[in-house]
Amino acid sequence: MIYREAGQFRTTYAADQRIFPIVQDRAGMALLLAVAFVGVPLVASEYALSGLLIPMLVLALAALGLNILTGYAGSSASGPRPSCQWERSPPTTCSCGFPGSRYW
User: Fold this and answer.
1) Which of 96, 92, 66 is nearest to 81 (CA)?
2) In the prediction, which pLDDT does 31 show?
3) Which of 26, 31, 77, 99 is the most buried (most CB within 10 A)?
4) Whole-structure pTM value
5) Quick check: 80 and 70 in contact, CB under 8 A?
6) What's the rounded Cα separation, in Å, for the pair 57 and 67?
7) SS3 sequence, the chain?
8) How many CB atoms lie within 10 A of CB 94?
9) Rounded Cα gap, residues 72 and 66, in angstroms
């Protein structure tokens, strides 16, 4: 950690609930966004933009969607689902450890 939060006091609830409450975080994010939106399009080649950057952005969007789908902690309780039998022909044939469960 290059900097510390000591000495940067917040006096309002709005200041306490900011996404980037520390001044160094806000400055670093502004610099990162400036490089991303100005620097990369100026210096990147056509291959870097269409072959590398766009697929990486698509995969990042898929990862964000998966994070939203499964929740903040990433737990959607999908562990026993693949081990259950799908035919449900007698109601007690679920092999996932729930006695008498018909559904997954």
Assistant:
1) 96
2) 96
3) 26
4) 0.51
5) no
6) 15
7) CCCCCCCCCCCCHHHHCCCCCCHHHHHHHHHHHHHHHHHHHHHCCHHHHHHHHHHHHHHHHHHHHHHHHHCCCCCCCCCCCCCCCCCCCCCCCCCCCCCCCCCC
8) 19
9) 10
